[in-house]
Amino acid sequence: MQDKEFLMIPGPTPVPQSVLLDMAKHPMGHRSSEFSSLLSEVYNDLKWAFQTKNEVFVYTASGTGAMEAAISNVVNKGDKVLSLVIGNFGERWAKIAASVGAEVEKIQVDPGQAINPAVLSKRLKEDVNKEIKVVTMTHNETSTGVTNDVQTLCAMVQEHGALSIVDGITSVGCMPVKADEWGIDILISGSQKGFMIPPGLSFLTCSEKAMKAYEQCEHPSFYFDFKAYKKAVNDNSTPYTPAVNLFVALHTALQMMKKEGLENIYARHARNAKAVRAAMRAMNMPLFVEDDEIASKAITAVLPPEGITVPQIRSTMKKDFDIVIANGQGKLVDKIFRMGHMGFVSDRDVLSAISSLEATMYKLGHKFEVGAGTAAAIKVLNEAKQKALV
Ligand SMILES: Cc1ncc(COP(=O)(O)O)c(C=O)c1O
Fold first, then answer.
1. Deepest in the core among 54, 184, 201, 354, taking most CB within 10 A?
2. Distance of alpha carbon 250 from alpha carbon 331, whole angstroms
3. Do 232 and 100 fall into the same domain?
4. HEC string of 287-347?
5. 275: helix, coil or strand?
């Protein structure tokens, strides 16, 4: 059957029909008053999503564009950047910082682990001459399914005096992130994740301290220049021709998000992650991240059981059920598969993905009690709903 594909990958994520229909309209003129009033609402709603009183800049670029924007506006050649690396996306910060000539040091852990705050605290205390200018980190490491304790890590960076730069690409709109309250200096995100729209836009908010660092930056990026985007937000405009239809999509998606409410959005992600994890355990499918405390609420990484391969699981899910699940990345290719449950994903989607995975594993000869995964997920979802009613 055609037109039934369902993306259970960690982005792009499924897009609501109302968003798709609004996107399908003729493009607006990007200097029209109609577009300007849409921008005014979008810019305000983004502050709500990022939990900040500061402007949120919107770049017509994928998430990596906002990463480059963050580094290239505050880091000078020779600056010391400490990158906290727990996977591929944490490594990307280090690569971008190196590309502008920064002296990069890393605190790195094995895939599947989070940064231990005590290790960062020790390194920052050793830096008595305050040489470290910037600390980069990933909130939700999509390549491994691990979430860092960004609140604690950023508090440490703030106490030291360096700037914190946080990749919230798969956390903003999925799990609690409070830019101002947590003292995050630069927080970025992308459109194709918690924001439920297609890829192509990325977001960045920065603190007054980060703006001061920008003033000291010798060669800030031209396309991503902070000052140009700050002025644009205040003028309800954009510096260059933006992806107007994606802004229309974002406007509709943000209305939906506000209707649901941030707390409900976070609760939905948390219960879906819990349901997937309970299902995997009930199906004897080893979780890549055993520790529930650091496991992502937006994506779950799973190891294939003995004798069954990741390509077999992914291709059977696609062929028999038209459900797309992601492979591992880098060294984890074919070692894990990743189920995204972020953005426009309901309990129904999670249950159908789990039962489809059960059918897949049964077909591939995995030994487990058929139905146990779905039953475990149903219990988790029901329990969460009962609690919400109290
Ligand atoms: C945590 C994280 N950071 C950065 C990126 C890069 O974003 P993009 O592929 O939109 O450039 C991704 C994309 O999946 C991501 O999940």
1. 184
2. 34
3. yes
4. ECCCCCCCECCCEEEECCCCCCCHHHHHHHHHHHHCEEEEECCHHHCCCCEEEECCCCCCH
5. helix
Q: Is 296 left (phi over 0), alpha (psi -120 to 50) or beta?
A: beta
User: Is residue 281 located within the same domain as residue 163?
Assistant: no
Asked if 50 contacts 177 with a C-beta cutoff of 8 angstroms, the reply is yes
Of 234, 259, 284, the domain-final residue: 259
* Same domain for 285 and 178: no
pTM of the model: 0.98
Query: Can you tell me the distance from the alpha carbon of 172 to that of 47, in angstroms, rounded to the nearest whole number?
Result: 11
- pLDDT (tens digit per residue) in 52-68: 999 999 999 999 999 99
What number does the ligand 1 atom closest to the CA of 143 have?
16
311 CA distance to ligand 1 middle (Å):
23
The enclosing domain of 291 has a CATH number of: 3.90.1150.10
Domain final position from 207, 228, 259:
259
- At residue 40, what are phi and psi to the nearest 5 degrees? -60, -40
When divided into structural domains, the chain yields a total of 2
User: Which secondary structure element, helix H or strand E, spans residue 228, and what is its range?
Assistant: helix 226-234
Query: Which residue range is the domain that position 332 belongs to?
Result: 261-389
89 lines ligand 1 (CB under 6 A): yes
Instruction: Indicate the top mutation candidate among 71, 166, 169 to test ligand 1's pocket, ranked by most ligand atoms within 8 A of CB.
Output: 169
Q: What is the pLDDT of residues 9-45, one digit of tens each?
A: 999 999 999 999 999 999 999 999 999 999 999 999 9
Phi, psi dihedrals of residue 233, rounded to the nearest 5°: -60, -45
